[in-house]
Structure formats: C-alpha cells, structure tokens
Amino acid sequence: MNGVELFLLGRTLMKIGEEALPTEGIGRHSTSVRTVLIVVGDVRAHPGSAVGEIATRTGLPQSAVSAAVARLREVGAVVTESDPRDRRRLLIRPAPETSDRVEQVRAAPIDTTLAAALGTDDPQRVAEIVALLDELARHLTPQALARLRS
C-alpha cells in the first residue's frame, strides 16, 4: 500500500462511517456530519478552545465550526462559556454528562453498512473485517497524528 492508497482507504472508511451513523430525528442542518465529528474530536482533544482556535487546527471555516458547535450544544455534546479574559469569545468543552443522542451515536453498529459496502451478507466475513478495523483503531489513535508532527 502506498500513501495514495492509504488516503483513499481512509476516505472510503470515513464515508462508510458517516453512512452508519443514525440520523433519524435530527432534521436538516447546514453542517455535515463530517464537520460535526471533526469539531467534536477537536473539542475532546483541546477542551476550553475558542471557535477560531478550532478552525485553525481543523482547517474548517470559522462559520462551519460555529454551526457545528451550535449543533453539538443542541444535542448536549458540548457546553460553552464566555472566556473570562474576553467576553466576546466562547470557550467550548465536552459536556460533563453524556447525552442520550451521543450515547445513541456511539452505540450505532456498523455491521449492516459495512456488509453493504463489502457487497456481502456473510456475517463471518463482516465480523473479520470489523475485527481488523478494531485492531487498526487500537493502534492508530488520534495521538498517532501528534507523533507524525514531532
């Protein structure tokens, strides 16, 4: 595998993951699921950040980050507070309690979506692929990116 193939695999896995996420009852939003997940991941890694800081780290437009934060606040995934040094800025942190919506998203299985993407209805094959993905996830955590930059 080369860098291009790895990149394309990552993109495919991201799209399969997006497809597996439950969307019932959330209505239409101006932000994509991908943007929301990128923002919530950054907030978890850097609690107490302002929108501009998140935008800088993620490369997302500030307006997209603001919309994602609003959506995350709406479902109880994050809390915001005024920056004591600059009341115009909001600081974003993960919510202290896990909301029902966050629990629902975290508990969403991938088996059906993965089977469709693989073009198989063989539960053993799907389980094998899920095990491989679990193994990769144990080794390639968000901290792996930090090791690349050091």
Automatic annotation (TrEMBL):
InterPro entries: HTH_MarR-typ, WH-like_DNA-bd_sf, WH_DNA-bd_sf. It comes from Microbispora bryophytorum subsp. camponoti. This is MarR family transcriptional regulator. It comes from the Bacteria. Residues 19-126 form the HTH marR-type domain.
